[in-house]
Specification:
Blueprint: E1 11-16, E2 20-24, E3 29-36, E4 41-45, E5 51-55, E6 61-68, H1 72-85, E7 95-101, E8 106-115, E9 129-140
């Protein structure tokens, strides 16, 4: 018995109510990382040594992805950021999305997301990659 993994099975869909949708299915995408910012448990130790464990409901974090600088997703994101930077502040953190891998069964939904910073861009003899990071108010999955 064996298992197989292919990044081309992974799909990331970004949605924004004012800007529209960007679907990333491997073309021009180098890596996707989900980082959760908060611990989901903490423990407090009393003077007598008893331990109280707290369950924490925070689900915020970051979604980061690396794109080829010539990819359609990178172009879409640059245009989206230009529009949002000059637009209504209420639209800024309105991104949501879904990251899925049907082979492994992984499904991660995120919402209340915004661009952390515009990516650094390098222009060299060969094509480069750019990194985008979104701050997410909620990551589920």
């Amino acid at each position: 018995m064996f298992t197989a993994y292919s990044f081309s099975d992974v799909a990331l869909v970004l949605n924004h109510p004012s800007i529209g949708q960007c679907v990333m299915t491997g073309q021009g995408v180098g890596q996707i990382t989900v980082t959760r910012s908060q611990d989901v448990s903490r423990q407090d130790v009393a003077h007598d040594g008893s331990v109280m464990t707290s369950k924490i409901a925070a689900r915020n974090g970051e979604i980061s992805f690396t794109l080829q600088q010539t990819s359609s997703a990178h172009k879409w994101l640059k245009n989206a950021c230009r529009a949002l930077l000059s637009g209504d502040t209420a639209d800024w953190a309105a991104f949501s999305g879904l990251l899925e891998n049907p082979v492994t069964g992984d499904s991660i939904a995120f919402s209340n997301a915004c661009v952390k910073k515009l990516p650094d861009e390098n222009f060299q003899q060969t094509g480069q990659t750019v990194g985008w990071t979104f701050l997410c108010g909620s990551i589920e999955g």
